[in-house]
Amino acid sequence: MDRDEIRKLGLYLLDAQENRREVPKITNDYPDLTVGDAYEVQEQIVHRKLEQGLRIVGPKMGLTSQAKMKQMGVNDPIYGYIFDNMVESGPDISLSRYIHPKVEAEIAFVLGEDIQGPGITAAQVLSATRYVLPALEIIDSRYENFQFTLPDVIADNASSSGVVFGSVIKRPDELELDLLGVTLSINGVIKDLGAGAAVVGHPAASVAMLANMLARKGLKLRAGEVILTGGITGALLLSEGDVVTARFDGLGSIEFTVKA
Length: 260
Ligand code: OOG
Ligand code: MG
What we know:
Keywords: Lyase. Residues 85-258 form the Fumarylacetoacetase-like C-terminal domain. There is one protein chain. By secondary structure, the chain is of the alpha+beta class. The chain has a single domain (3-259), classed as Fumarylacetoacetate hydrolase, domain 2 (Alpha-Beta Complex), CATH 3.90.850.10. The protein has 6 helices and 12 strands. The strands form 3 sheets. It has a 5-stranded mixed beta sheet with strand order 3-12-11-7-8, with no helix packed on it. Strands 4, 5, 6, 9 and 10 form a 5-stranded antiparallel beta sheet that branches. A hairpin with a 3-residue loop joins strand 11 (243-248) and strand 12. Helix 1 (3-18) crosses helix 2 and helix 4 (122-128) crosses helix 6. The structure holds 2-oxoadipic acid and magnesium ion.
């Protein structure tokens, strides 16, 4: 696919995001779009946002749990980027910032040293990790009905849109991250639950996978970035008035209210 088409698709998705408007998925018109092309469209979007003065908080993994893969009908992990203007500080979030947002519970990592793939293991990630913290990611596909194929969602920066971080941080050796239980509730009713192991066996394995995927592009994970490892639970659609609460064993809880 040529540069002009890549640029055009990047602008199409950026425009959808900026105008909070759902749009037909790009594989309708480009059925042969490859995963490689899709990451190039994503790079266009990232590049534009950096040009606009936004800063990268960190990369994220997506579609790393069976719950998420089944829900979205896409079976391969992907990555995207979270920007500083996506960080919600609570206690409310406003639907006006989104198209059709969903929430999912995740474990986030902050590294104390850079990690450069290939060949990175979960054990190497754990020894390079400064701390972990809980997060609620707010995903908001730019595509109609939140439906897409693998290349579509990659091009769309993995539906990245918002995130609420918890305030408890722990060193990874203070927790058993694979056994760490999480419940996700709306208005006091548990809607989904899971454990860290839902994420490719161990959340640190997701970070290792990310390091190895980035290495194909000559990129590395950097100390200080906040890295999302992917939804443990399925994602829940948000409606006005919802009080969303996630409880993480050993990592406290995160709560926000959905306003118009
Ligand atoms: C794609 C983003 C997936 C996760 O944690 O699995 C993701 C989507 O489901 O829209 O962020
Ligand atoms: Mg996510």
